[in-house]
Design brief:
Layout (H helix, E strand, L loop, with lengths): L1 H17 L2 E12 L12 E4 L10 E2 L6 E7 L3 E3 L18 E13 L4 E13 L11 H16 L4 E12 L5 H18 L3 H18 L14 H17 L3 H14 L2 H5 L1 H19 L6 H5 L19 H8 L1 E10 L14 H4 L6 E6 L5 E7 H4 L1 E3 L6 E6 L5 E6 L8 H4 L4 E8 L3 E7 L9 E8 L6
Parallel strand pairs: 2-3, 2-4
Antiparallel strand pairs: 1-8, 4-6, 5-6, 6-7, 9-10, 9-17, 10-11, 11-12, 13-14, 14-15, 15-16, 16-17
Amino acid sequence: MKSFITLIITLLITLGLNAQSVKNTRVELKIKNERIFPIPDTVKTYSSNNTHLRVRGLEFAQKNPDLKVEMRRWAPTKYNVWKGANKRVGGLINESDSHFSESSVLSIRDNEGNILYHRVYTTFDVQAGTAVPKELEPDLFLSHRLSNQTARCFSDNYETTQRFQFYYINKSSNHNDVNQAYELALQAAEKYNNRETEESHNLFSQAIDSWQSILNEKDLNNKKARINRKVTEAIYRNMVQCLIITERLDEASEMIKNSADEVSNIFAFSLGRYNNTRKHFEINNYVRNNRDNLTLHDLELPSDLKPVIHQDGRRFPDNTSDITNLLAGSWRFFLITEDRLPRSRDDFNVRNRMQNLLNDDELELLHINPDGTKIEQTGSIERNGKQRLDDAMPYWRVAKGPEGEYYLFFSYDTESLENIRSNFNQLEHAVIHYIDREKLVLRRPNYDPDANADGYFLQLYRVGFFLD
């Protein structure tokens, strides 16, 4: 009888350990925005042409605002998808699903009407059937993303609320060390919101060190292990979040990758949220540490961006309508080469801006508006305080030209674009050498007879939301 009771007690203890329950506590942290644009501190108010479009942190004022914010959007259009490899005409295959694009324009002016910020954003989507939808993204969602973008650029008073979930092991005396680190993280979060940053980071770091030591015991294939797969996943989640908050972003990225590979596919589904949170802290960190040498060039271009090279061949749809749909957007110049494309991607660093753009310190963006107008932006207000968006040739059109090439034409007026064949030699133009959703390559002739190069290949990358 005594041995039977001992057996029952042993079983109950074992079941209690194996039935360990992972719980979490939701924590909200207030993150102060680091403004990108060096606008005067006297900028306090804004107006907007859309109820949902705001500059968070500034006051709304319909009359005499410091900033005028305007959003325009166009209905979705359908386009065909190019699926060939290193082919030109004949490389187009229509898929059974339909592909759509939708463009919107965000423009911000000062109280004198000067454009401070202009972006053309294009959303792409694939849907079943052939009917063109009314919209690809609801107006409320799009306005929310644009509001985040404007606050990021223009508001120092904006605080975002980032939600975190810290995990602990419920009703388990066998995991006191895990839970003690969890309590440290909660204390750190409270101090973070009280702006006690140094003390907060110290507590978060202590929690990270404790969890890191505990992971030495992990046994992912043994459910009865103290640090089994479920507990390991909880610890990884905690550590990733603490690393992000303390701005140890490289370590966070490495752990996100390794933990996704190691733990489970289910865990991987939530890693996108951690990556977005990491991106938010990364931008704040970049802006704070590069205030004297700040440029959207680095924020809007992926650090691993590589150019189109000679061996890639040509790539574009073989009709004017599809090319026109793909062109709408804001494109940032990231490489210019004389007479030919590069032969290799090796040693290319997108951050070598001056070197990549043939030492052109002014060249920035080509904004191709869906209404047939465009702005070739030179200079950047955030980098040197000067920029030009008053384009001398504000109109554009795509048309097929000699030898079956597709051309992007620019003009002082719309009338000249009505008869491109007759006005071909008078219009400024560039051959569209390559285009897809992300990249555009233009081959532009050289009009200077004294220059060494016959022409230039201009490589551009589509600018999207750098913070969703």
